Amino acid sequence: MAKPIYVLNGPNLNLLGVREPHVYGHETLADVRGRAEKVAASHGLTVEFRQSNHEGQLVDWVQEAREKGAGIIINAGGLTHTSIALLDALQAAELPVVEVHLSNIFRREAFRTHSYMSLAAKGVICGFGAKGYELAVDAIADLLAAAGAKRT
Ligand code: CA2
Q1: Distance 145 CA to ligand 1 centre (A)
Q2: What's the CA gap between 42 and 150, in Å, rounded?
Q3: Can you tell me which atom of ligand 1 is nearest the CA of 76?
Q4: With contact defined as beta carbons under 8 Å apart, do 62 and 89 qualify?
Q5: Does the structure show a pLDDT above 90 at 23?
Q6: Number of domains in the chain
Q7: Would you state the pLDDT for residue 25?
Q8: How many beta carbons lie within 10 A of that of residue 77, not counting itself?
Q9: I want to staple 128 with a disulfide (CB 3.0 to 4.6 A). Which of 8, 106, 132, 150 is the partner?
Q10: Measured from the CB, is residue 78 less than 6 Å from ligand 1?
Q11: How far is the CA of 5 from the centre of ligand 1 (A)?
């Protein structure tokens, strides 16, 4: 059985579809999960989809992914702009990492334009709403296929 892609979501993303639809859209996190699972299945992959409001929990999950996962997709929410601990965990994971944001963080407040996560990410997808998670799964699938091809 192939290892799953860990899709990790940070603080307040549980509110998706419930609050601020003008910024983050109308889809819920369950809808986003469904999208990610569907695209992963099309590549013969699975996802381990999680959300936490707690930085330490997210660090623990990144460490778990290091052992049990094939790659990491992360939307760290507000921790994107503050968490060196999460950056350290992602760098230690030695897995392909794709960073996702629902909103275009470069069209918003200046403090959102800096991401600690980006230092560990192969690439960043932002501004495409829930679709961004599908693009991220495609990107990880490509990275895994390329890594597999290199090994054979
Ligand atoms: O655009 C994104 O995905 C963000 O990661 C979302 C974070 C924000 O702090 C980042 O700068 C960009 C906020 C997540 C909060 O999500 C909510 C969803 C619905 C209603 C309220 C908050």
Answers
A1: 30
A2: 22
A3: 5
A4: yes
A5: no
A6: 1
A7: 84
A8: 21
A9: 132
A10: yes
A11: 21
